[in-house]
């Protein structure tokens, strides 16, 4: 404690992929969501468009939190809870994962002693509490210490760092949440896909834009913003997410033909701001969606002739994703809902369902500071 009544919390600020966030051990935060979220708002300096009185960087990509703890799951070493902290709103959301902050969870777990480092390289099995999905992150640990230096470069981050290889096994959620490769949402053809991040794929041309505009120009287009909002609200219900008015999922990715040798150009909304690059899990969903027969991406993308790697172009470069799809024939279930893969009532054989067997990506991470954060005093700002 410093001064009468002052709070202090152990915290590590880290860059994970193209995002930046505050990393905490779960035991260093209140256990109950309400006091925890109030504390994190004060740590980040929200609500305030500049976040001038906290750690936040005045953008959703730099107003993020990772909460990490040892896992009771025998298939995982640590649990990772992602929290998106509102910038100018007093909101803390756990409705989605963050694949960018995920890149630094393994190194953080080693730094905090949750996982013992190997001599040379360490793999950390991570359970993402937001969805229950699993991931394995591997990174260099020479002489039993995390080494953040290296030659791996990723678009959107200056310089180079050590590679963090993240593999995602097959998830439990359906790749096509609506059961269809294509839906008509608000009179616009879309593909709703979830390969770790609920995402709506839309051909940019179907909304009267090229898909090559800058994020700033797209954000300034009020007519586009209203159309995207309409699509997102309707798609959220179709995807089983309910009313998504106050959430950040599903993401919306506008697709256009590639400009620089990739498979597709993207502009992704999160959900109102246009991403200056693309999130890891969002890119994983785009990559899988491009391979789905009948999806809107097949008419836009230029998929490679062989191999699993797909290069997703974005406003500041590209992200390479390796995705392997297979088509499974599900067991028929009596009483299946309309639109489901099974159709026993008609006597037809169930249609093959696309499944993402494997997804992998190379990211980088870096420890920026490790120490103590002093939150803004409680009650200093009246939340609207």
From TrEMBL:
It comes from the Bacteria. It comes from Streptomyces umbrinus. Residues 330-353 are annotated as: Disordered. Its EC number is 5.3.2.8. Pfam families: PrpF. Belongs to the PrpF family. Residues 332-353 have a biased composition (Low complexity). Keywords: Isomerase. This is 4-oxalomesaconate tautomerase. It is an enzyme of class 5 (isomerase). One of its GO terms (molecular function) is isomerase activity.
């Amino acid at each position: 404690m410093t001064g009468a009544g002052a709070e202090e919390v152990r915290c590590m600020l880290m860059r994970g992929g193209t995002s930046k966030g505050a990393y905490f051990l779960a035991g260093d935060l209140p256990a109950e969501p309400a006091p925890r979220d109030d504390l994190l708002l004060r740590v980040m300096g929200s609500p305030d468009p500049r976040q001038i009185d906290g750690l936040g960087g005045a953008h959703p990509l730099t107003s993020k939190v990772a909460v990490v703890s040892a896992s009771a799951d025998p298939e995982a070493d640590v649990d990772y809870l992602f929290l998106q902290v509102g910038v100018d709103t007093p909101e803390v959301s756990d409705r989605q994962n963050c694949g960018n902050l995920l890149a630094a969870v393994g190194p953080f777990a080693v730094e905090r002693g949750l996982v013992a480092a190997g001599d040379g390289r360490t793999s950390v099995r991570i359970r993402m509490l937001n969805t229950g999905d699993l991931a394995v992150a591997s990174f260099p640990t020479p002489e039993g210490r995390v080494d953040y230096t290296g030659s791996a470069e990723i678009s959107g981050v200056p310089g180079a760092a050590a590679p963090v290889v993240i593999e995602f096994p097959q998830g439990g959620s359906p790749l096509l949440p609506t059961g269809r490769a294509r839906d008509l949402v608000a009179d616009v053809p879309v593909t709703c896909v979830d390969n770790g991040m609920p995402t709506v794929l839309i051909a940019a041309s179907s909304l009267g834009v090229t898909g090559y505009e800058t994020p700033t120009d797209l954000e300034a287009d009020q007519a586009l913003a209203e159309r995207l909002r309409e699509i997102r609200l309707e798609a959220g219900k179709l995807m089983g997410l309910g009313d998504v008015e106050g959430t950040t999922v599903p993401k919306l990715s506008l697709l256009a033909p590639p400009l620089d040798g990739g498979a597709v150009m993207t502009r992704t909304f999160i959900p109102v701001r246009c991403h200056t690059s693309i999130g890891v899990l969002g890119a994983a969903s785009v990559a899988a969606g491009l391979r789905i027969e009948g999806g809107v991406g097949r008419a836009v993308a230029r998929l490679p002739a062989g191999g699993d790697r797909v290069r997703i172009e974005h406003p500041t470069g590209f992200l390479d994703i390796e995705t392997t799809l297979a088509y499974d024939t599900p067991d028929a279930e009596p009483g299946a809902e309309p639109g489901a893969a099974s159709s026993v009532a008609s006597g037809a054989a169930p249609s093959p369902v696309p499944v993402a067997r494997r997804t992998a990506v190379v990211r980088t991470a870096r420890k920026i500071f490790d120490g103590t954060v002093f939150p803004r005093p409680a009650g200093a700002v009246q939340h609207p």
